[in-house]
Amino acid sequence: MGKESINVKKIIIIAGALCAYWIGSGFATGQEVLQFLATSGAIKGIIGAIIYAILLGFFVYTLYGVGQKMQFEDPYDIFEYYCGKYIGKIYMWFSVILMYGIYVTMLAGSGATIHQYFGAPTNIGTYIVALLALGTAILGVEKLLDIIGVIGPIKIVFLTIMGISALVTLVGKPNLLSVNSVLIATAGFKIASNNWLWSAILWASLGLMFGITFFVISGSSCKSLKEARLSSIIGVSAISIEVVLLVITEIVYLDVIKGQQVPTLAIAKYISPILGMIFSLILILCIYSAVSSMIMVVTRKFAVDKTKRFNIVATILTLAGMFAGTLLPFDQLVNILYPVSGYIGILLVGLMIYKEFINKNAFPYSKNDKKIIENSGENITR
């Protein structure tokens, strides 16, 4: 096998794009971490975060590699690759519906964020972010990855600042974490599951359903397998640290986040009005980058990017999403859509494990046989 080339800038961009995609409205606003992990308390929440990180790492590392090696013409072919032709089609269409549902949920999150900080009507925030995301998606996959790859590290920095503030608070009040770990269970927050371990597994399998086609697209944009895998490791490592920090932060600032649609924004405003103002803009960037990616991924099922058909389909989906994103409260959308998707994703996890570790010849995939031969042991040039 020849020596694989590595483009450090490309690795950072792809890792940053993963962070930008992953830290969308559910994550950046704090609702996902709150409902899946923090409500279980500090110890169970942190252990759950570690389990989540291990599973996420496996998904991203594997799928970036498969995407780079297979170079699917249609990223949704990944479902046929792992599930076979018929089950794969079921998963493919469920994935399209799920991602569009999450896209709508993220739009609702943008409206909630802008309303909570700026006082503007919720629907106005939703419309603005939707139109900006549409414009970005129309630019094409490579340009989108370049844009959101820069935004990802910015998100990481600001979430880390809040995490450090929580840790500093704990130095002065060392019992606060244990006390609030008990109180958070009865604080009235929505929860994904009554079992903390199951919540972590559900969230990870949701992540698989949510991100599988994006992982494939990102991996295929890399020029070598090593480049793809390094990108995945760096991106998942950064996300995992933020998950643990956010669990601690939400428990420490329990009194601050009660009754808030956007917990992280409430915390940022509590720490510093200036931080709150800046973070409100960062949150909008978080949601904008994730929404841009989602509308790109969904539209790719119906058309190739940078075509007239793509632009028309993306516009129609955006207009429908702008309307649907104003129908239900953000936390209610998260609580309904995310856990159900997690359950659906568990079967897919099993099928992935089966093909990767038990029977690599399961569910023969014929569309790319020629490419598999051509790409074996070679770099991919795009």
From TrEMBL:
Domain of life according to the entry: Bacteria
InterPro entries listed in its UniProt record: YkvI-like (IPR038728)
Keyword tags: Membrane, Transmembrane, Transmembrane helix
Keyword presence, Cell inner membrane: no
Regions crossing the membrane: 12-30, 42-64, 90-118, 124-145, 157-176, 196-218, 230-254, 274-298, 310-330, 336-354
PANTHER family recorded: CONSERVED MEMBRANE PROTEIN, MEMBRANE PROTEIN
Stated name of the protein: Amino acid permease
Organism: Clostridium fermenticellae
